[in-house]
From TrEMBL:
Domain AAA: 5-205
CDD domains: ParAB_family
This protein's name: Cobalamin biosynthesis protein CobQ
InterPro entries associated with the record: AAA_dom (IPR025669), DNA_Partitioning_ATPase (IPR050678), P-loop_NTPase (IPR027417)
Cited Pfam families: AAA_31 (PF13614)
Organism the protein comes from: Acinetobacter qingfengensis
Lineage: Bacteria, Pseudomonadati, Pseudomonadota, Gammaproteobacteria, Moraxellales
């Protein structure tokens, strides 16, 4: 099982779109794929689990159970302090539902989803205070026989849930829009990933920077990408073109591969998936 986390501290760079479409292609290729949404905005959950009609899309509250329930159970697990407590603790542990209890089978073959919840951030403080940062990794470790690929969408912040995802992941993909502010923030982001690798997950690898919304005819995007390459940053060869077609994909709650196989944006995502799988 290979676990990828899609992460950028800057919002609006296409994290959820990239996560969902790579996961959808993975599943379409016959790989047993799990998509985990850790962003309280739940855009990835809506994208995959929303009905195939933008006017009657599912409401966030309908995504139950969700990753919130997993972390709520994690936060409320008590540490036994005596023999009797140990026995009770062992009994309770056998009842632990884990990630399998919060999974939803999507309407797409081979694609399973663990949706987010808008109240997820309310658990951050108690999870941090109880040092539960490795619980997601441990839970995923129990699923290795059930899935081939895991894709994790993260909030646009370096917080408890993002750190949990980076600790649980094998590889990290960094969406990047060709914006001067994104360029300035990229080094800080890479420093956070490096620190996480040093302190918590020595096998974590930066798989690459995904250039999104790329306009090949515009001067500034080309200059920014060239600068990234000159700085020897791991920019992936496949760049995702800017296209209003993505908005149609969102409105219909259909990943590109299920909406228009031959569209140029769909083909770019196919090529991107092939590139990262070849690494």
């Amino acid at each position: 099982m290979l676990t990828r986390v899609i992460f950028n501290q800057k919002g609006g760079v296409g994290k959820s779109s990239i996560t969902v479409n790579l996961a959808a292609i993975s599943a379409q290729q016959g790989l047993r794929t799990l998509l985990i949404d850790l962003d309280p905005q739940a855009n990835a959950s809506q994208y995959v689990l929303g009905q195939h009609n933008g006017m009657t899309a599912a409401i966030l509250a309908d995504f139950n159970p969700s990753i919130y329930d997993f972390f709520d159970e994690t936060a409320n697990q008590n540490t036994p302090k005596n023999l009797l407590g140990s026995a009770i603790g062992s009994l309770l542990q056998t009842r632990s539902k884990g990630l399998q209890a919060v999974m939803h089978q999507s309407r797409f073959a081979n694609l399973t989803v663990i949706p987010a919840h808008p109240q997820l951030n309310t658990l951050s403080h108690i999870l941090e205070s109880k040092h539960k940062i490795y619980k997601l990794k441990e839970a995923l470790g129990k699923l290795t026989a059930h899935f081939d690929r895991v894709f994790i969408d993260t909030p646009p912040a370096f917080n408890f849930f993002t750190l949990s995802a980076l600790i649980a992941a094998d590889r990290v993909l960094i969406p990047f829009d060709c914006d001067i502010f994104s360029h300035r923030a990229l080094l800080t982001l890479l420093e956070n990933i490096l620190e996480t690798r040093q302190d918590h997950n020595e096998t974590l690898a930066v798989e690459g920077i995904i250039v999104n919304q790329f306009q090949s005819q515009a001067r500034l995007p080309t200059e920014i990408v060239n600068q990234l390459k000159q700085d020897q940053l791991p920019v992936l060869d496949t760049m995702l073109p800017a296209s209003v077609f993505m908005k149609e994909s969102h409105s219909k709650n259909l990943p590109l591969i299920h909406l228009a196989t031959e569209h140029k944006l769909t083909q770019a995502y196919r090529q991107l998936f092939q590139e990262i799988e070849a690494k």
